[in-house]
């Protein structure tokens, strides 16, 4: 551990010597993920990103400017058609209400704080909305013409500072307003945010600062305080504050309830007069918000900050390189990279909860979504970032008692299913990530597995007592089916780390629990002509009453997946599950049926692995069919290009892996091979090495989607899977494609717990992954 | 021919000696289909029928009372939500406008004529609509409470007469109105009906008669005249007629344009006073309409007419018997039988176009829909009815020049695709139906194949010149792809009949054309990873410009089907088509993909055969999967129980065959075996024999949906198909079912033109099917 800490301190000193380009990067503390590799890229990848991909059809992707993992995500907040304030932050239609500084991406139900809006003409506090035209969103840059006011708005940002530029028309009544009571999804329903009160202080004719307090939102988190410091490049002719609907000359205003509050800087503007504003955000203090401005954006050069943001993105985007892709694929994949790296939020130095030298990340929204593909992607291509994220999870455990399943607004909640941070830790562990205190991580995992939480919606494992006593969660707890399936896999993750750390007793204990998913398997339950499904048990152990058709499952037995999805979810032991389902042939028929009947839903994460499960039954050709179909059917490079909520980039990372033709078994050192859609693609591995995937004979029509043969680093690869150890020092996977299924990949399935080589810690091939 | 005619005359004399029960049956001329087997059934099957199945979600099934194939279909016409008059005749919501006498089933866009409606209180001619409650529809019976007027309405019918009974409340202003200007879907669009004018004559205080003239509608037919005669059991205190919005004491009214016209019989009613009305319909004259009433419904006994209608239906419904079915299956299948037998309409004796002693049927709406399953069903279980229908088609050819592809309102039109009456004739021919002049039928088929029609929307083969000169229809004609595929199959039908009739020269000619479908096969066209598809050719023979994504095909290249559906449509030569598609394995993958990607649409007839095509590639297990899925997914016993337009019963007959586990290859003497869903089912064959299908080991869950072995009449049946000759004298097919695919049915595919045994007429096994 101390070694890791010193590394951070050392790196910080390096960082402080960097120039203006890096002022937008993390300035305080220990989060230094991108520093090692920061060199000015010679290629600009950012033009491949279209931030609008996924904004429609519920993709919920962020519109505005942010650096990778940026704390500040500045963008427009919208009024929706029906007059309600959007809970989503952005819609293709609707009026703009202003530009606020905190947003999610691929998620909704939180933030939208500190809303800045220009106005010309009479200032109507309750009606500032304006249509917009000429909307532009590029990496680190947003612009629109606000037609009601004839103002052009431009935004860029550094990690904790939003940079606004407004070009006004000639007007004797020009205003720059700051609304500190605003937030997205305010209201009274149980998932709504609530505004609790705020302060605003006009410390000069071009400065405002204060704090705004909120509570609730999707994660039902506790109070979060947003400190802000706003500074303008042009002194105002007059300033006013408001509370309620009353403007006042007072320089200070405070409300302790939901009363509107804000301020306006008033000007007489000439035609095309630009007024700029920098708004620093902090979760510590208004003073720190001011420091953030001074450190990150010391000058008034919009272009410099925009260029710095682009440079940081180029460093991240350069980790993917493509050859032979089409335009749509290029736009989709780089936009996916962008979307993956908007979340979680790097709040290092901005943790109001406790003092620590560890990195601090927030907006795990939520790990239940991201552990399956986003985490393995970062483990592969951004191991230092993933190290920091996991260190942050461990630090949250230290100070809150649990690693979160979800967290936002500096508070844990709301759990979706299992304690899937366990899998995130195991994924990093079995892939050999350095710089993580795996002993403490292990303690956190065991805590998850042994200590029932007071509020299972907030953190920890709901129904844990049942699970640990009976081997399954009963109907006494919600989501009993998905929890049982996921806890079994979480326990597998714990067993892996126990093995690697030499804790043989714990390894044996948690290994024994990895089979618990089978305790809910009713071998006689028959649905749609298939026999054997997960079925709820009552608290007394008896099977629940017969299947009731409510969204294809018992009410609240599974979460975001039906009986088909969860009954084939056991990545730790697909061999056993296939035996339960009747053997390879019956399992293949069941999978066929699952896809044929649309039981597979790529927009919900529990189904993410379904297409590649054919590999476990010797039918990688069918994996190819489904992956190929899903990519073609569900993803495009348009505003509706993501088929559902991007879920903090989970969908986007699924897209990246699936387009490249591999799929990670999260939490295991295993990747499955599906079908590449691009002739030649590489991923940087964070150690200067690359993993390259070459698909020979690929055609643009998807005809040659079947792997005929494969080599890895020139050596014949007969299997439709490989291990992380085989690529971690750089590798080239060459797949020869053809128009018909072949014998390739049909013999040796990917590893399962029931396989001989999973029976002991020694054989788990974890010997190289000891803790530091 | 003369022999057939004498048979009819003989039968007529038998018919005339039958009693009151048969007064509802055809009374004039030669249509005697049901007479031979009319005996009072001991079992009432009619309670298994729910006429409401299919009324929602566009099933368009008829609501009201009709006998099998009845000319009069009396039922409610509805106002829709938005105030428009429904084009569909019925909706679950909306006000009732009255009860009219002509309707379609599983179709829309025609009729709704001679609208009778009771009214109490002031008579507002432009607002007679009323909500209803307590709606009941049973076989031959409809009832509803009309809440605005507090009148209970009941309906029953014979072939050409609607019988109304209205129970009034106490009222000094009770009216029974007859609106002769009414029709469904009036308007100005190109598919609208138009009212041209009418006469009404009040010949007494309880009688009205006249004619109403209409034109257009879905089939864009010429003018049709509906003659009517209305008689009431209660003399009115006063009568009035109206034209426009003006009521008058005049006993006669005439309009020669679209002016409203009608009459009212006015009463003072006591509480619960019943007033009954009989309305005879004729297409010949008002006098004949009156005779129809006198012959079919001589008395005022509503119950007798209702019982007669039920008896006729029981005769038809008794042709299906089920054992071990569940309630839903029973309701679905008998309702399907009912829906199949509502169309076409037996108008024997009511043909205004020409005098003939042949049967006369109308409302082929359209044969393009029904030739695939409805015709083979009738050929099997109602051969005498099918004989009459085909005789009618031949007679229409004699007098209009073409057998229709569609016909309604006594006029041919509007063609959908090929001249599929050819297949209907061949289906009857190869299955040995007697009493049909196949020489004239053959002349009609050749006429279809050789003489381009003046208006291909009305009748005949569009693009025929191209087709016969080049071997394919070019893009110069609409629906070039579907027409080419269908003409190829139509020509196969002609070749079959030519063979059977000993016309070897014609057999050779039309045999050679059966391969024309392959002339549009572009072996290099690749879509979604599959190679080889039908592709349009320009008039100069070159391939059309690349695939444009408009509903999955080129605009107007295919009709009600996409490139996937039509590119695997060649029932005459699946062997050749499978070779084009790359062989059995590739074909199975293509079919898998077709279903996976939802290119299969059971609601459009071109896809009807897709599920059973696996049988041609040795995979009857996959046929079982898809049939099983489609039944479960698409059909229920509810108002929304038919997944799309019933298309005159085409969907319903697909449902019957698919539930029983067999499927006819229309126009061939071949049935394919899919997967039965009922343990024991029999179909009467019209000759006193039955075809029984026994499924051993069937479970209610669809688990044992795979045939393991089969016997036909006790003899091992290794193939997943059999010939009509094997069952025509009665047969029992025993299928032993199991939970996993077996080797059964995988070796010898169903016959194809490219098979050796299709190469000569002698080998077509048609030797028993010589013409009379």
Automatic annotation (TrEMBL), chains A, B:
What is the annotated signal peptide range for this record?
1-31
Domain of life per record: Bacteria
**GO CC annotation terms, alphabetical:** cytosol
**Protein name, please?**
Alpha-1,2-mannosidase
The residues covered by the Glycosyl hydrolase family domain are: 288-739
The reply on keyword Signal is yes
Q: Which organism is the protein's source?
A: Granulicella mallensis (strain ATCC BAA-1857 / DSM 23137 / MP5ACTX8)
Q: Which one of the record's GO molecular function terms can you name?
A: peptide-N4-(N-acetyl-beta-glucosaminyl)asparagine amidase activity
Which Gene Ontology biological process is one annotated for this entry?
A: glycoprotein catabolic process
NCBIfam families given in the database record: aman2_put
Alphabetical UniProt keywords: Signal
Q: Does the keyword Signal apply?
A: yes
Q: Where is the Glycosyl hydrolase family 92 N-terminal domain?
A: 49-282
């Amino acid at each position: 551990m101390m070694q890791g800490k010193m590394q951070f301190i050392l790196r910080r000193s390096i960082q402080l010597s960097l120039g203006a380009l890096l002022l937008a990067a993390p300035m305080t503390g220990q989060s230094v993920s991108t520093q090692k590799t920061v060199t000015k890229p010679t290629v600009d990848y950012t033009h491949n990103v279209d931030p609008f991909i996924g904004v429609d059809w519920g993709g919920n992707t962020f519109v505005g400017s942010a650096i990778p993992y940026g704390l500040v995500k500045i963008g427009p907040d919208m009024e929706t058609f029906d007059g309600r304030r959007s809970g989503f932050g952005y819609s293709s239609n609707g009026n703009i209400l202003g530009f606020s500084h905190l947003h999610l991406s691929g998620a909704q139900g939180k933030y939208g704080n500190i809303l800045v809006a220009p106005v010309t003409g009479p200032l109507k506090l309750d009606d500032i909305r304006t249509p917009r035209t000429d909307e532009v969103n590029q990496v680190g840059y947003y612009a629109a013409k606000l037609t009601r006011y004839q103002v052009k708005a431009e935004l860029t940002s550094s990690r904790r500072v939003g940079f606004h530029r407004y070009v006004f028309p000639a007007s004797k009544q020009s205003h720059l307003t700051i609304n500190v009571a605003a937030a997205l999804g305010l209201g009274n329903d149980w998932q709504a945010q609530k505004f609790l009160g705020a302060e605003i202080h006009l410390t000069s004719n071009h400065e405002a600062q204060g704090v705004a307090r909120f509570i609730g939102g999707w994660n039902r988190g506790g109070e979060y305080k947003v400190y802000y410091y706003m500074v303008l490049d042009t002194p105002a002719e007059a300033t006013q504050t408001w509370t309620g609907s009353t403007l006042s000359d007072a320089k200070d205003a405070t409300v302790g309830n939901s009363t509107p509050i804000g301020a306006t800087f008033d000007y007489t503007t000439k035609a095309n007069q630009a007024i700029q504003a920098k708004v620093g955000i902090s979760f510590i203090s208004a003073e720190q918000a001011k420091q953030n401005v001074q450190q990150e954006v010391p000058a008034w050069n919009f272009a410099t900050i925009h260029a710095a943001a682009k440079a940081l993105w180029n460093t991240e985007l350069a980790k993917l390189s493509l050859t032979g892709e089409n335009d749509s694929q290029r736009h989709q994949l780089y936009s996916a990279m962008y979307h993956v790296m908007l979340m979680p939020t790097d709040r290092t130095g901005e943790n109001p909860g406790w003092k620590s030298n560890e990195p601090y990340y927030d907006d795990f929204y939520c790990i239940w979504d991201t552990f399956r593909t986003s985490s393995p992607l970062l483990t592969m291509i951004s191991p230092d970032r993933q190290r920091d994220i996991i260190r942050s999870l461990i630090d949250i455990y230290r100070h809150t008692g649990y690693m979160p399943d979800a967290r936002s607004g500096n508070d844990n909640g709301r759990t979706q299913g299992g304690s899937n941070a366990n899998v995130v830790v195991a994924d990093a562990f079995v892939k050999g990530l350095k710089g993580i205190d795996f002993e403490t991580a292990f303690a956190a995992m065991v805590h998850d597995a042994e200590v029932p939480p007071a509020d299972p919606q907030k953190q920890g494992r709901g129904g844990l007592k049942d699970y640990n006593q009976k081997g399954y969660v009963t109907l006494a707890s919600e989501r009993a089916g998905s929890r049982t399936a996921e806890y079994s896999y979480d326990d597998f993750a714990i067993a892996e780390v126990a093995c690697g750390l030499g804790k043989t007793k714990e390894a044996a204990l948690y290994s024994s629990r990895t089979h618990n998913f089978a305790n809910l398997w009713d071998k006689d339950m028959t649905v749609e002509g298939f026999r054997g499904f997960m079925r709820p048990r009552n608290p007394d152990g008896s099977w629940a009453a017969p299947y009731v058709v409510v969204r294809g499952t018992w009410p609240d037995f599974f979460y975001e997946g039906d009986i088909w999805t969860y009954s084939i979810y056991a990545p730790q032991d697909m061999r056993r599950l296939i035996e339960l389902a009747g053997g390879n042939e019956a399992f293949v028929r069941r999978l066929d049926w699952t896809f044929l009947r649309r039981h597979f839903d790529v927009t919900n994460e529990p189904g993410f692995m379904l297409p590649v499960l054919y590999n476990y039954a010797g039918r990688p050709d069918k994996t190819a069919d489904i992956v190929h179909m899903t990519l073609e059917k569900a993803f495009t490079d348009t505003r509706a290009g993501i088929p559902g909520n991007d879920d903090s980039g989970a969908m986007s990372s699924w897209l990246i892996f699936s387009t490249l033709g591999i799929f990670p078994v999260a939490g295991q050192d295993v990747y499955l091979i599906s079908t590449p859609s691009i002739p030649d693609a590489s991923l940087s591995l964070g150690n200067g090495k690359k993993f390259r995937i070459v698909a020979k004979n690929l055609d643009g029509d998807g005809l040659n989607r079947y792997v005929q043969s494969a080599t890895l680093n020139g050596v014949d690869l007969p299997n439709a899977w490989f291990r992380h150890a085989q690529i971690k020092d750089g590798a080239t996977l060459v797949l020869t494609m053809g128009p018909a299924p072949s014998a390739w990949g049909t013999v040796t399935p990917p590893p399962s717990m029931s396989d001989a080589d999973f029976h002991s810690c020694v054989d788990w091939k974890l010997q190289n992954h000891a803790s530091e």
